[in-house]
User: What shape does this take?
Amino acid sequence: MSAQPQSSIFSQTPNFNPVASPIPARMKGLNRAEICDVNFVEFVKAWSGRSDARPAPGEAILDGSALDARGFRELFESQLISRHLDLMARVLRVQNKVFYTIGSSGHEGNAMVARAARHTDPAFLHYRSGGFMAERFRKLPGMDPVMDSALSFAASAEDPASGGRHKVWGSKPLWVLPQTSTIASHLPKALGTAVAIETARRLGHGLPIPDDSIAICSFGDASANHATAQTAFNAAAWTAYQKLPAPVLFVCEDNGIGISVKTPGGWIGNRFRNMDGLDYFAADGLDLASGYADVQRAVEHCRSTRRPTFLHLRTTRIMGHAGTDFEIEWRSVEELCAVEASDPLLRSAAIALESGLMSKDDVLDLYEATRQRCFAAAEEADRRPKIETLEHVIAPLAPYTPAAVAAEAGRADYSERRLQAFGSEAKLPEAQPPRHLAIQINNALHDLFAKYPETLLFGEDVAQKGGVYTVTKGLQKAFGPRRVFNTLLDETMILGLAQGFANVGLLPIPEIQYLAYFHNACDQIRGEAASLQFFSNNQYQNPMVVRIAGLGYQRGFGGHFHNDNSITALRDIPGLVVGCPSRGDDAATMLRTLAALAKVDGRVAVFLEPIALYMTKDLYEAGDGQWLTSYPAPDQAMPLGEGRVYGEGDDLVIFTYGNGVPMSLRAARQIEQSHGWKARVVDLRWLVPLNDAYIAEQARGAKRVIVVDEGRRSAGVGEGVITALAEAGFGGVPMQRVVGVDTYTPLAGAAFLVIPGEEDIVRAADVLAKG
Assistant: This one.
């Protein structure tokens, strides 16, 4: 829908006619921030219009405006706070007292969104949100937008948003989740949060915010073109098409430019005004008096209809993209002057004067008082403690409380719900014969769903079908479609949904169908989910267990995208936990620990499932059943970082994981027969982070070491194992690495030419034997 035609919203306000260039010629080569500062003062001093009688606090600020005098005054103050924080940053950056200069100047009208919304509406903001934040601070008494922001600008350890780790707009009590990641990557999790609000309500899960909350997400016109943004818009429309509630307010702050690349005129309006599934509203963010009613309508529409809503907010950008952006080098003076003449603070000053609410002296006094307040706060923030130790830096990155995690993982006080899930005592999985990996993962998922009523599982084909490999078979039937459901085919949105569910206290278990598909959406974990604890100083968490089917060795099916053997992209994500079981009992106990890590410490984890081992029953000979395992009782769990050891020999120690475990066991038997060596095979099980101390402990006394890594030679797990051994002083022990080739996986039998095989392990032992 369209609230009003764009032309009527975006036309010049009749009462506001600044000259095209209010800048004296002598100032055309000066710092543009200084020019904007002088512009405001000279504009107010030179104003000669007629003033109305001073309006009462509850009266409209101007005839026909939905904004009353009190509201305007507060919004104007918020705009001034935002502007003077920008000006302060430009001045103090050169003194090394401030470390961030991407400003909000020209976007101060976003304060209207904050005023129209509630402080309990989760907000995911882009970097030009100073006005929004200053206004939202009014929602709770005793909070100081100036000092809190100054501490963040100064990278002070006392910064309440990130503890000094980054300049972010964020606040735990104000439900502003800090954003520090790549362009538009916050849109999927904003939509995910909107969906999660409704999902939690339908499940009867107690929300930490009111049931009718909406999620707010702001971004620029250039960002709207990003693939990740398009993912979110498409998913929102897809959701609306199915009449599923998704109360997200997309706020596109259109200033017409992205750094130096101009957005084609009318592009945003034409692109989104008629997009099916997004309800379109437009508002003039440069004029508080005329723009507020449209902003208010958009917010109220989103809240009442629970539909995805697109608010096209007209803004401008003055003072450049950041302090290092010298626009005069690539933009004409005439163009800059025209842009600076559209400064929303000039219009707000005109409204204050036209309405009779403030005199010239009142406006200038407030402007200068706000300047002094911001500079005083910045100077004080500069004197506050900074982060000075590595331990302080990484403290919130990967919180881990081993005793509490172990207790939670082994908690088994849900026996009645287990019986409901499995049917009877006789059908409990521990009462069944040994089973293969896929069945035990399925049993463990049923167990987790019984243990945690807030658990959700979702992804492509996971519901009725039970996944491509039937690993999730029966879960939807047992726990219902609200807890187990299919998503659209979009890994970015799957992980965005996971973050949204985590934001409201649910425990998401998203499935990425194949490891190769994770790379489409890697930034949702790298830049978003795994970074949130770090950049919020552990005030916000994204607890989740991401299931990914992957690795190689599938026969008769595959090629690269179904046999991706590289986990390098996962190993490089700070704070992430990656577990990879090779057998069914390990899968069950590992899942319990991963869920406990999420519940207790808020961690983001990946459960990497070796596809080729899903249905494997035998180890040495067909029919031996030696890779079937019994299901562990629900009070058993696997300690984080602990591997599994097969054998007791020291003649040869083989470190491996996943498919490499049964392969290494078979090779070890051949090696013992050919060389007479007693071998020990160590299944690492935990791949990120690698337990260096455990690896060193298992290598102690070893005469020879082979590292079997089914991934690629470069940047794989094997490199990490070799490094751990070398740093622990085992450099003199003869070692061989058996790894995959640095290539993509080809189709059919050729796949086995590029990944390690048993014969490669035996050959490595032969090399060691020759000394």
Observations:
- The CA atoms of residues 567 and 737 lie 17 Å apart.
- The longest helix spans residues 69-93.
- The longest strand covers residues 705-712.
